[in-house]
From TrEMBL:
Keywords: S-adenosyl-L-methionine. GO terms for molecular function: tRNA (L-threonylcarbamoyladenosine(37)-C2) methyltransferase activity. The keyword Phosphoprotein does not apply. The keyword S-adenosyl-L-methionine applies. SUPFAM superfamilies: YaeB-like. InterPro entries: TrmO-like_N (IPR023370), TrmO_C (IPR041369), UPF0066_cons_site (IPR023368), YaeB-like (IPR040372), YaeB-like_sf (IPR036413), YaeB_N_sf (IPR036414). This is TsaA-like domain-containing protein.
Length: 235
């Protein structure tokens, strides 16, 4: 047996699993940071990394390890009803709980001894342990005529609207424009469980994004953000 130890921790606006895009490039405005840890946190380990525009991140679905896994899963792309083999899916419940995402590399910085790798959007909860980084190599990793099975194209985004109250909170924030665009792209993925689609949905949803609690209601083609409030402090 080999023991795997994290080489870094990711910092993202996603404070819980709910509403995280299901793949990394679906909310292109959102930026994130990877902070290396332990022996991996040296300038030497990222030498010449900046030559590459994209990286593969390998990580642990750490919030699901306790839950175990099953040989078949119901992918949201199939409406959450049909079963496929776990290895024919990107399910987060896997025998070794390992995930992988191809992400944009924006910059590599050394901040007082801390290696900080600035990245584009990822599909990861804030704090997810990263277990490896590899450069994305287009001549081999990009296969333009590959067939994507039941996930052959990106899901259709829905429209996102903001109430006057939500707009006011965004406008007051120094990164308000970025955050509005980020929230639009994230919620346009319709984070609700697949089985909610095609039915009336009276529920008000709430999700922790950035340091905000964002509430919204949804129909099949529109999400309406009702309120944006500071997250309650947990300590
Ligand atoms: N691109 C990766 C992950 C796809 S699944 C892969 O294909 O392997 C993406 C989902 O993982 C997110 O929508 C979120 O619900 C879930 N997720 C993100 N971080 C997680 C974590 N630390 N533990 C468990 N689940 C996580």
């Amino acid at each position: 047996m080999h023991t795997i130890s994290p080489i870094g921790t990711i910092r993202t606006p996603y404070k819980e699993k709910f509403a995280i895009p299901r793949q990394p490039n679906l909310a292109p405005t959102v930026t994130t940071e990877l902070h290396l840890v332990g022996e991996a946190n040296t300038e030497a380990s990222v030498r010449e990394l900046k030559q590459f525009s994209h990286l593969w991140l390998l990580f642990l679905f750490d919030q699901n390890i306790e839950s175990g896994w099953k040989p078949t899963v119901r992918p949201p792309r199939l409406g959450g009803n049909e079963r496929v083999g776990v290895f024919a899916s990107r399910s987060t419940f896997r025998p070794n709980a390992i995930g992988m995402s191809a992400v944009e590399l924006i910059d590599v910085e050394l901040q007082q001894g801390q290696v900080v790798i600035k990245l584009g959007n990822v599909d990861l909860v804030d704090g997810t342990p990263i277990i490896d980084i590899k450069p994305y190599i287009p001549y081999s990793d990009s296969i333009p005529d590959a067939i994507g099975g039941y996930a052959d194209s990106a899901p259709n985004p829905v429209d996102v609207h903001f109430s006057a109250a939500a707009e006011a909170v965004l406008q007051q924030h120094q990164d308000g424009r970025y955050r509005k665009q980020a929230l639009s792209e994230i919620l346009a993925q319709d984070p609700r469980p697949a089985y909610k689609k095609g039915k009336p949905d009276p529920k008000t949803y709430a999700v922790s994004l950035f340091e905000w609690n964002v509430s919204f209601i949804a129909t099949d083609n529109c999400i309406a953000v009702q309120n944006i409030a500071p997250l309650a402090q947990s300590d």
